[in-house]
Amino acid sequence: MAAPAGFIQSTLKNTRELAMANKGSSVVTTSGNLMVTDLSSGLVVDATSGATTATVAGVCNQAISAADALTQVLLILPFENDTWIVDSTNNSNEAHNGQAMIIGANAHTVNNTGTTSAVGVVVQVGTFGLTTDKKIIVRFIR
């Protein structure tokens, strides 16, 4: 069975730390999406390919619709040695292990181009499933 879309911890821990983060009342959240802090507003939003290690807030742990009008969201805080299974833009490839990668066009995909990125947010430490499943195991760069 394939892992669900988005960032999921590859090994669940009893010590997983959660935190509430402020968001706009109309911001829709999806469980498993990477969220970053918008530097102009100070609120969390879905990550994009422009995400940096300094702006990573955490992995969304709560789906919220715009109609809910909630102003906070529960996030899983990533720690240095935590590993996460995530969808990748291209087929997974063991040769990409150790490469720093940016977030893809959306908050639940990593862009694994085959070259390391100087502005990478995660580093690949392994693959998950078949190469065509496009799932990799990553750690956040801190």
Protein described:
The protein is mainly beta and 142 residues long. The protein folds into two domains: 14-76, Virus Head Decoration Protein, Chain: A (Beta Barrel), CATH 2.40.300.10; 84-140, no CATH class. It is 0% helix and 34% strand. The protein has strands at residues 8-9, 18-22, 34-37, 44-46, 56-60, 72-76, 84-88, 100-103, 109-111, 122-127, 135-140. A five-stranded mixed beta barrel has the order 7-9-8-10-11. A five-stranded antiparallel sheet has the order 2-6-5-3-4, with no helix packed on it. The model has no long low-confidence stretch (mean pLDDT 92).
Short description:
The chain is mostly beta strands and 142 residues long. It contains no helices and eleven strands.
Describe this protein with a few key phrases:
five-stranded mixed beta barrel; single chain; mainly beta; 0% helix; 142 residues; Virus Head Decoration Protein, Chain: A; five-stranded antiparallel sheet
Low-pLDDT residue spans? none
Give the overall pLDDT as a whole number. 92
Structural class: mainly beta
Q: Total strand count, please?
A: 11
Count every helix, treating DSSP H or I runs of 4 or more residues as helices: 0
How much of the sequence lies in strands comes to: 25-35%
Q: What is the name of the CATH topology of the largest domain?
A: Virus Head Decoration Protein, Chain: A
How would you sum up the global shape? globular
- What level of helicity do the residues show? under 10%
How does CATH name the architecture of the largest domain? Answer: Beta Barrel
What is the fourth-level CATH superfamily of the largest domain?
Head decoration protein D
Biggest sheet, in brief? 5 strands, mixed, barrel
Q: Look at the structure and give the CATH class of the largest domain.
A: Mainly Beta
Q: What's the number of domains?
A: 2
Strand neighbour order, sheet with most strands: 7-9-8-10-11
Cα gyration radius (Å): 14 Å
